[in-house]
Amino acid sequence: MCFSAPVSFVAAAVLGMTGVTTLTRVRAPAELPLAGVPLLFAAQQAIEGFLWRGVPDGPGHTAVPATLFAAIGLIVWPLLIPIAMALVERHPLRRLAMLLIVPAGIGVSVNYAAILLVRPYRAWPLGNTLTYVNNHPISPVMLGLYIVCVCLPPLLSGSRILNLFGAMVIVGLAVTMLAFYESFISVWCFFAALASLILWKFFRDRRLCDPAQPA
Hints:
The chain is mainly alpha-helical. The protein has helices at 5-24, 32-35, 37-54, 63-88, 92-99, 102-118, 140-156, 160-179, 184-195, 199-209; strands spanning 122-126, 129-133. A hairpin with a 2-residue loop joins strand 1 (122-126) and strand 2 (129-133).
């Protein structure tokens, strides 16, 4: 497995096209946050592509894009995922369970936002991956809450496709922790980005199976 600027840019292009396709299948404003997930992953991969090109100039030249990449990963995802999943969930109890995770997502997002304000990230190559460092110790509690916020909502969904999305994200988490721990942020985001491609099928099937939706 090799990661590089071309890999990141190709992933960004594929995710971008997927995101545009999912957005064209949206039929209600509540679906927009979930439909936009591939586009946000595309932005992350594009940022990482530019980071690959900037790291030869030294870590000091990577602070802005590295912090932006980390901000999407650490601030946006733990809040967006439970909200986006809840908005498309049709089963009231499942939706309630997802909404109960939102306060944790807010806490995680606020925590990491405060850290990034005083401890911006920098990136540099580590083998065939990028490592992101801000010299701030990782809180096991915050990491655990983060994982709950981004992994549990898809598993609570009544959609098998979204269940599969969640399972793929968890598999990516396991692989990353076992084989790419020092490049955790970069590699897990890459696996999660690939998993988000399945959201196209969710919106396609949702439209086909709902007679209320126009063809």
